[in-house]
Write a structure and sequence with these properties.
Elements lengths: L6 H18 L13 E2 L9 E3 L1 H9 L3 H11 L10 E3 L3 E4 L3 H14 L13 E5 L11 H19 L3 E8 L4 H17 L14 H14 L13 H21 L6 E4 L9 H11 L3 E4 L2 E4 L10 E4 L7 H15 L4 E7 L6 H10 L7 E6 L2 E5 L2 E3 L11 H8 L1 H10 L6 E4 H6 L5 H21 L15 H10 L2 H11 L4 H17 L1 H4 L12 H24 L9
Parallel strand pairs: 5-6, 5-11, 6-7, 11-12, 13-15
Antiparallel strand pairs: 1-2, 2-4, 3-4, 8-9, 9-10, 13-14
The protein binds one RNA strand of 76 nucleotides through helix 2, strand 9, strand 10, helix 10 and strand 15.
RNA sequence: GCGCCCGUAGCUCAGCGGAUAGAGUGUUAGGUUGCGGACCUAAAGGUCGGUGGUUCGAGUCCACCCGGGCGUACCA
């Protein structure tokens, strides 16, 4: 008996045998049978599954698809999982699951518990999701929140799919921007002591730098001050970065994101570290060439548009150079089977050459996946606000979390496909305290919890419920929706499209509300979960329990809370 | 110039080559004396940016064009 996970395989097998039987009976010509012809109809009125096999076979078989469909359907044996299939033009075979099969899924969900819909596709594989990784030169802004929501949810989905997952933040604590940051900080610091210091031309004008300088003054007094006109001490910059990273970590924690590792760019340059090893390897391959005083990676020989500088003529590595070292560490040293880098779309020019470099150091072709998300356009008071850490006004992730809450912010970020530019209307998000889809989903969970609680007060529990009593359309509809979770997860980890998660969550919540309100719609109190009919009540409580498990699972994967009360 | 992403309902967005293109929100009309209405039911609302092509079948794939965004650094 198949469970929710391999029902497709089961159906394909069933269809395949029907076709063979039809061929053996001489009713179909012996032609190649295309696989994977099982799909889910958009309209559930057409069944739980549909096969387009007849449409795909029509050309080779030289018969009208409808006729093929009828033949195949006739040859499908009676089966405990599906009803007799029906045929629809232009050549679909529609398949409906039996009530018995659906009912048993309730037991399947309860038995699986919090691990319901776990997959095995990632078993024994190590995956890393690196996300946000914003320069620690300023607070996280709203756009970083999108990357955080996407990366964290993807990591959770991969974990559910069986991967051993690490979440990582790459701390750019070594580049030129770090130097500019240090200069700005020293200028602000000097200003606190009454000196007329200007922030550098390309510096960070934001108010937060003043606060950061203040913070440092409070802990170290004038300890970082140098005679006027001299540059600031080197350790002021690193102290500033440290504090900034701490702020970033707190912001992300408030957003519900926790990392397994904060990886220092600086550490790439440790003796015998990734940078040395990676460049040595490329040199060995003869892929590093010196030209115009700089060191270039000969990427054009590997299909790139041009070569790229790895080490500047002043001896400092470029971002590209350090990123090659970083990915050497990911693939070669740490041995990840799958690495997902979640980046803002403004980095897309970097994708191809990093993939090329990753392969050059030995990574599998498909091992690196760069997930780009388009930048967030902010709208406030009907006006578009550009996100820029260097420009004047930024809206921080902290402010967003403060105003709309982490759960709602995450849900909204996930709702859009990463590749689509999204507009975040702050005014709308703020006032969406009750008309917000996130609450719709969470409310469903709270009601499921309260039903169980209310029943328990009356001495009723799901224990011993007989699921074969679940025969109402709204009951079976809820089960059908619960069954989709594994499919959704599998799709998310295969396509890296996290937007499927919130859409599914809404569909599941809708199925629950339909079930929960059926008694009102039909004006029939006997459809309530808790009725005078104890056996039926217990059966429905089992369904409620299973639905709660399913909903909590999808909420958890999205990084949202599943409240029992609201 | 070249490259990548996007263009779907008033708005914000889903949509694995399949059946009558969906959801939320907004609008309109109903439902509530309750297992928490932060809910439910229904209606209206679309030349899927345009033109060709591939296919039994195209919002989906291909080509070109239009519009928006981003990239094309010894920045990250």
């Amino acid at each position: 008996m198949p469970d929710t996970r391999d029902i497709r395989l089961y159906l394909e097998d069933l269809l395949g045998r029907a076709v063979q039987s039809a061929i053996a009976a001489g009713e179909l010509p012996d032609v190649a049978v295309p696989g994977s012809a099982i799909e889910r109809p958009k309209d559930t009125a057409n069944g739980d599954f549909a096969s387009t096999l007849p449409l795909r076979m029509a050309r080779a078989a030289m018969k009208p698809p409808l006729e093929i469909a009828n033949v195949i359907a006739r040859h499908m044996a009676d089966d405990p999982v599906i009803e007799r299939p029906s045929v629809a033009p232009p050549g679909f075979i529609n398949i409906r699951l039996t009530s018995g099969f659906l009912q048993r899924q309730v037991e399947h969900v309860i038995a699986a518990g919090p691990g319901y819909a776990d997959l095995t596709v990632g078993a024994r594989k190590k995956a890393q999701v690196e996300f946000v990784s914003a320069n620690p030169t300023g607070p996280l802004h709203v756009g970083n929140g999108r990357g955080a929501a996407i990366g964290d949810a993807l990591a959770s989905a991969l974990a559910a799919a069986g991967y051993e997952v690490e979440r990582e933040y790459y701390v750019n604590d070594a580049g030129t921007q770090t130097d500019t940051f240090a200069e700005t900080l020293y200028a602000r610091y000097q200003q606190l002591f009454g000196r007329a210091a200007d922030i550098p031309r390309d510096g960070y004008p934001g108010e937060y730098m003043v606060e950061l300088a203040q913070e440092i003054k409070e802990e170290a007094g004038d300890g970082f001050l140098r005679p006027e006109g001299e540059p600031g001490p080197a350790d002021l910059g690193s102290r500033g970065i440290e504090l900034m990273v701490r702020h970033i970590r707190r912001s992300l924690e408030a957003f519900g994101v926790r990392y397994d590792r904060w990886y220092s760019e600086k550490s790439l340059y440790d003796p015998e570290g990734p940078y040395e090893k990676a460049t040595a390897l490329l040199r060995e391959h003869g892929q590093l060439v010196e030209r115009e005083g700089a060191l270039w990676f000969a990427s054009s020989e590997l299909g790139e548009d041009k070569d790229n500088v790895v080490v500047r003529s002043d001896g400092r590595p470029t971002y590209y150079g350090s990123d090659i070292a970083y990915h050497y560490d990911k693939f070669v040293t740490r041995g990840f089977d799958l690495v997902i880098d979640v980046w803002g779309a403004d980095h897309h020019g970097h994708v191809s050459r990093l993939k090329t470099a990753s392969r050059a150091i030995g990574a599998d072709r498909e091992a690196l996946h760069v997930l780009l998300y388009q930048l967030v356009t902010l709208k406030r008071g009907g006006e578009v606000v550009r996100l820029s850490k260097r420009g004047g006004e930024i809206i921080t992730l902290d402010e967003l979390v403060e105003e709309v809450g982490a759960d709602a912010a995450r849900f909204f970020f996930l709702l859009r496909s990463p590749g689509a530019q999204m507009e975040f209307d702050l005014d709308l998000a703020k006032k969406q305290s009750s008309e917000n889809p996130v609450f719709y989903v969470q409310y469903a969970h709270a009601r499921l919890a309260s039903i169980l609680e209310r029943a328990a007060e009356q001495g009723l529990t799901p224990d011993g419920g007989d699921v074969s009593l679940l025969t109402q359309p709204s009951e079976l509809g809820l089960i059908r929706e619960m069954m989709q979770l594994a499919d959704v997860l599998e799709s998310v980890v295969q396509t890296f499209e996290p937007q499927q998660l919130p859409h599914y969550a809404m569909a599941l919540a809708t199925a629950f509300h339909a079930f929960n309100d059926a008694f009102k719609q039909q004006n029939d109190p006997s459809l309530k979960v808790i009725t005078g009919d104890v056996a039926r009540s217990r059966a429905r409580l089992r369904l409620v329990l299973a639905a709660k498990i399913s909903l909590a699972r999808i909420l958890g994967i999205m990084g949202m809370t599943a409240p029992d009360r609201m």
